[in-house]
């Protein structure tokens, strides 16, 4: 045969060897991929704990540890018994103190007035959300008191509510006898709480407006089409839709009432008249700052913490039940 027509011989490669190499390479790739996925999933599981670790550390060091120290200190004595263990003597003394019992009674009054403190910013936020005329102006006006110092607010209302002040002058002009707003033990606490609500509801208003941003507008439109009144819309659409927001505002408002009224009490009444405006935080300051009884103040602080914890948990539970949540 001519040499030019000769065909080069090709030796076939066994198919088993090629398939085995390909399978081995694919196995290596799959193994590397599975290890990569396992490593990625492990990192994803650990990422939330790494992110919250600094916050948890700060809470433990600056909150939890001092709290435990305060609870431990409440079982020690004051004065001649300073540093010695006295058991529950401080707590028994609190129960025998009429001022502390008055402070606890005023805590009950705050709980009764809490729905008013939550309803006011809630209703105002509803009107702003529904865009009543002038809603932009009202939003600014309602929030303005929240930026004022409690000392300034207290001084302003001391002038307004003085026995010969503008409020009594207006009442006298319409034939109503003047009221001793800050000197009557039956009235003073209501006045201080009312001033506190006026000065702080701006923050709750902002929270409610943020909650309205998550509300389904289609439900409001459907309610309007069905001819629902404003009261029916609030009861059947807005309140169920904002149950979580209401729970948050209720808890934060109650905590603010229990822990943020010292400035108003100090400026407006100084705990008077006749101790009628005492709250636990003011009692704690008196015992620590004036009576030099830090152990008794620690016991009162522990009682205040337990009250806030119990009231907060009960509020959340009741509001969740009202909102139809488990």
UniProtKB/TrEMBL annotation:
It is a multi-pass membrane protein. Keywords: Cell membrane, Membrane, Transmembrane, Transmembrane helix, Transport. Residues 16-25 have a biased composition (Low complexity). It is found in: Cell membrane. Residues 28-39 have a biased composition (Basic residues). The chain crosses the membrane at residues 46-65, 107-130, 142-163, 187-215, 245-268, 295-314. CDD domains: TM_PBP2. InterPro entries: MetI-like (IPR000515), MetI-like_sf (IPR035906), UgpAE/MalFG_permease (IPR050809). It comes from the Bacteria. The keyword Transmembrane applies. The keyword Magnesium does not apply. Pfam families: BPD_transp_1. Residues 99-315 form the ABC transmembrane type-1 domain. Residues 1-39 are annotated as: Disordered. Its main location: membrane. Belongs to the binding-protein-dependent transport system permease family. This is Sugar ABC transporter permease. It comes from Micromonospora lutea.
